[in-house]
Amino acid sequence: MRRDMMHLVAFLLSGPTSHHHGMWRHPETENRFLEPDFYEHIARVLELGKFDALFFADVLSISDFYKGNFDTILGRGGQMGLLDPVPLIAIVSRVTQRLGLGVTVSTSFEPAYQLARNLATLDCSARDASPGMS
Q: How confident is residue 91, by pLDDT bands cut at 50, 70 and 90?
């Protein structure tokens, strides 16, 4: 690999607004974030675009705090994650061959053993599906 090569990683949240706070209000927005084929489409486009990876951030709270309260984000929309990224990675892995996949997970709400087990299962599944890997 050349040293001057750029690596592209898509950073996504899985929720109604993703990274555009007001997108849910735009009449031409097609945000099908509750449909598996939405994430499969994203993965295919990223792979065709030569991205190296797709990373889902897990957000377990409302992150924007403006003027001392949450009124703005609750009333007008803001960045928020809604879905668990681990099953989304399983969905995405069905349609991609070369795209690296990553997530953040939290031990604040789930035991570390369970998270490690889930991630090991995903890793095992990915190896079995990839040609030439054992």
A: very high
Prediction pTM value: 0.75
The token pair at 62 is: 């409302």
How far is the C-alpha of 127 from the C-alpha of 106, rounded, in Å? Answer: 24
Quick one: tokens of 123?
């890793």
Tokens describing residue 1: 């690999």
pLDDT at res. 95: 93
Closest alpha carbon to 34 in 80, 96, 83, 81:
83
Q: Is the dihedral of CA 39, 63, 60, 103 positive or negative?
A: positive
Determine contact, residues 42/99, Cβ cutoff 8 Å: no
